[in-house]
Design brief:
The structure is a homotetramer. Chain A is of the alpha/beta class. Chain A folds into 2 domains: about 140 residues, Rossmann fold (3-Layer(aba) Sandwich); about 160 residues, Dihydrodipicolinate Reductase, domain 2, CATH 3.30.360. Chain A is built from 9 helices and 13 strands. Chain A has a 7-stranded mixed β-sheet with strand order 8-9-7-10-13-12-11. A 6-stranded parallel β-sheet of chain A has the order 2-1-3-4-6-5, covered by helices on one side. In chain A, α3 links the parallel β3 and β4. In chain A, α1 crosses α9. At the A-D interface, β7, β8, β9, β10 and β13 of A face β7, β8, β9, β10 and β13 of D. Chains A, B, C, D: It is an enzyme of class 1 (oxidoreductase). Chains A, B, C, D: Keywords: Amino-acid biosynthesis, Arginine biosynthesis, Cytoplasm, NADP, Oxidoreductase. Chains A, B, C, D: It comes from Maribellus comscasis.
Amino acid sequence: MIKVGIIGGAGYTAGELLRILLNHPQAEVTFVQSSSNAGNLISDVHVDLLGETDIEFTEELPFSKVDVIFLCMGHGKSKEFMETNQLPDSLKVIDLSHDFRLKRKGNDFVYGLPELNREEIKVAKNIANPGCFATGIQLALLPLAAEGLLKNGVHIQAITGSTGAGQKPTETSHFSWRNNNLSAYKIMEHQHEGEILQSLKQLQPSFANDFNFVPIRGNHTRGIFVAAYTRFDGSEEEAKKIYQDFYNEHPFVFVSHENPGMKQVVNTNKGVIYLEKHNNKLVIISLTDNLIKGASGQAVQNMNLMFGLDERTGLNLKPVAF
Amino acid sequence: MIKVGIIGGAGYTAGELLRILLNHPQAEVTFVQSSSNAGNLISDVHVDLLGETDIEFTEELPFSKVDVIFLCMGHGKSKEFMETNQLPDSLKVIDLSHDFRLKRKGNDFVYGLPELNREEIKVAKNIANPGCFATGIQLALLPLAAEGLLKNGVHIQAITGSTGAGQKPTETSHFSWRNNNLSAYKIMEHQHEGEILQSLKQLQPSFANDFNFVPIRGNHTRGIFVAAYTRFDGSEEEAKKIYQDFYNEHPFVFVSHENPGMKQVVNTNKGVIYLEKHNNKLVIISLTDNLIKGASGQAVQNMNLMFGLDERTGLNLKPVAF
Amino acid sequence: MIKVGIIGGAGYTAGELLRILLNHPQAEVTFVQSSSNAGNLISDVHVDLLGETDIEFTEELPFSKVDVIFLCMGHGKSKEFMETNQLPDSLKVIDLSHDFRLKRKGNDFVYGLPELNREEIKVAKNIANPGCFATGIQLALLPLAAEGLLKNGVHIQAITGSTGAGQKPTETSHFSWRNNNLSAYKIMEHQHEGEILQSLKQLQPSFANDFNFVPIRGNHTRGIFVAAYTRFDGSEEEAKKIYQDFYNEHPFVFVSHENPGMKQVVNTNKGVIYLEKHNNKLVIISLTDNLIKGASGQAVQNMNLMFGLDERTGLNLKPVAF
Amino acid sequence: MIKVGIIGGAGYTAGELLRILLNHPQAEVTFVQSSSNAGNLISDVHVDLLGETDIEFTEELPFSKVDVIFLCMGHGKSKEFMETNQLPDSLKVIDLSHDFRLKRKGNDFVYGLPELNREEIKVAKNIANPGCFATGIQLALLPLAAEGLLKNGVHIQAITGSTGAGQKPTETSHFSWRNNNLSAYKIMEHQHEGEILQSLKQLQPSFANDFNFVPIRGNHTRGIFVAAYTRFDGSEEEAKKIYQDFYNEHPFVFVSHENPGMKQVVNTNKGVIYLEKHNNKLVIISLTDNLIKGASGQAVQNMNLMFGLDERTGLNLKPVAF
């Protein structure tokens, strides 16, 4: 059994981790740290866990009792955590923030997108788990980059659910405002662009293309919808073959032959890809659940790889479907 | 032209008042007070008013320039306002809080439900505008009370939209929580019970019946859905006649011969009533928009009555329908 | 391995069964019959199953190859099926329609509510799986009936999601109509009343009380919200003890000490109960997912009991939470 | 008073026309034709009109009694209607289908986008009312085209509400499917491209640019959200000036200085435009209500122009805001 600690246990991504790990056949949640909720039952915060667990949040950090910790604190906090805590050499770390996603001197975290870096993840000590938009967009583009086929401008329309913005109530997460509403934000300057471009260049070092991304706040709770397009000179069939070959050995990403709806991946760790060729453009639809494949599910997928398990262990999740 | 001042202009009910009054053919918004937003454009807070008005919020209270003020501050604040401000004798006041709804010594506010108190409203100086749940529930029960026919227990299921809880973001107004969700609150102890019972006793002084009301938070923004039932010994046709006769002279309340959906009253000042008799029970469906007939529209209806206008002036609002 | 056949495989309840059974460690889906979809991939109809299964719908009914069949056809069709097909003696049947829920001469189906009939279910050949409203309402009332404490009128407010009405598009399931809408239907005459009363009388034979139920169409996809109340002379603590004792040995029903939101049971087989005492009334909130505990999850729970498995096998489902 | 006839009165656009025209101070609905609903009360089909009108649908077509007819039948039906009916010379026609939007020999309909063709509309006999996506997208691009500034590829992300697909229930308008869902359709081949390109070329005859449009089905009922971008060499301030100057004399289109949410135009005839410059791209957000500015409101705006009224007559609609 892999012994797990969770740091920052009261937020959305920690809740999803718990929902997954409590049923994971090879993992055991040893402690869940939360400074704001220490002493409270986990099921009083993540109320759907009523009856699933009697664990309480703790302020303690018993690193020696666990094999891996997941960092689920806000962005910026993980860096601080790593600097102020002396972790045992044997302890693996999976960080869900953006603090360690970009390569730079002294950063020994492996970027944890299994469809890009599976072999490195297997032997990594520390993982920087990708962002939600970043995951959905990379799944749309990596097969082309792997073939060096990102030749011109890349255009991304991507819509996110409200859970992507976390649990702190804000004006744009107010039900009265958001219900039946749509709005753009961080236009052409979303913070996930850096990690996306880093990955595209990893596969296609020449990539320095025009990259356009207008993020949109959707009127739903879970799910990332991406419609990307770029120039592609081959046929639709050739495109499909490139994607199918690329994802053939990756158990969570599927190329659909029917035009899909976003909800079919909600509450799963899947990515669904759909392709159409029009004129000289290849249009790629990419669907993921921002909290699972875009966060906590992918974190567990990384844990599985790091500990030599089948990638899918504990991730055969029932889709919500409706 | 009726000159209008609004106190507490940044909240939901003030926004709705402005949306109505800016198109009211006989009213003119003279000032809109807001301490938190003084100096800002109204259309920067109520953004849908872009292009409709150039008025700014003010901290001033130029009472002498207006004929009527609407109090749109939080509950408790209206009482404080009336105590600390010396108002001109000629100035009429319409209070949207619950501060003056209950009769008590020294309270000279008339309870502003036109279907109950139209004649008193016409000559009132001060109006206590009813609560949203209170409006929907009273429209369901007043015709029976007027006939002295509330003989046994009264049972109310009523569901409110998120705008009923105001614009301050809270845990239960968070989109991620509320979307697709339902929950009960203030079970059997909602603060509107007092005004409802007061009105029922006004029409049927003997009323001291078992009154049961479980308020439910709905997964929608606007609208109050009420399903009430009570023992009724007559036929369904007799019930319909009682309701039709009662509402015949009230231009905003209609008895539907088809089972209605709540959304058909949204964005209007209407009440829609529907009746079915089963066994010895009369079931009454009552539909209203919590922000209009349940708040700001009714406040304008009261203003119209107080100033001798047709009740409907400025209230022929386009339903949103979808 | 339990070998399973599904009859009527294209509808919502069959889809949910498949989502559960494909991950069930002790069951194997042997065939899925659908006359309208024979020859099509299951994952082309239940599109979220892309990558989970390569099974196709069939027109065949190879009864001898399976241990149990689930009947997922429309109401009325199960009776017809049982009359026109000669089933092997050893074949167990779990029917999700209402055709066999009411006891009558010649009906050998056991009513499959484990919290009521667990021992009978364990030895049953045929099961009539309860209705969704019926499940939620019975979970709210059974503990009182078991104590003979349903003394007066019983009042039910219950709200259902759109999936309760099946997948055939209708006027009231049209998104443009239903979004942000609420409406009552089958007022005081819902078809589930019969099975509810049958169960209440099974536990409290004297029960002949005034039973009031106004079903409401909610603006959500999954979930049954029930708020029931009835006279109760004991204290809130006594009520809680009665419910906790009753559900203590039932692994899917939990008494919450916090006022819950419906969504916390969505995508699970759980029931969550919450109690408040006001004046002489006990108010009982009961939450279930209409497609799982109210249909396909309960059907699998029944299968587990019939085949000697732990009731929870394959039913540790990840809640969707948001 | 302008006397109005509506052909095809039972659908969504006819309902919206009625909601607007019943309160229009200078128009009078003389007849509403519907073959499927002849003899039924209008308020039994458009149920929110309960109490607003006692008109019944008719099968008659008393052309001589009206000054203008609105064609609200399905696409293809308007052409048939014009061919089979002999209309009085003085009768004006406003067609809401796409049948006459594209210029071709013998088509004497003026394309009814007032922001493009106001002077032609004023003297037109027949109007082809623009499509909903087409309206939102043209409002985003016309000011650039008017300056000849569409120099490179044009990229459109646009999301529509469910009412855009009409009232016939379909799989993708089923609440259970559509709620919380997103999907692309008619990728790069939406039928509105023709009218958009026609208008862009009208203003910038050289326009033959790469035009990219992936339409998305949104999880809301009303509203078109457009985020468009194209290369622009000037500054953000220069862009804002171009747009403000262009829309200065058009009373329904406003340039917002704050990043807007789509819902702020819902239930109004407004267009709201917002601009940001990033790198060498100008990003244009354009918001409209698909049923009003994108259909029936614009049709009334055209009627106002054709009959010499102020464009805004009857179109000061209360926004729903929430």
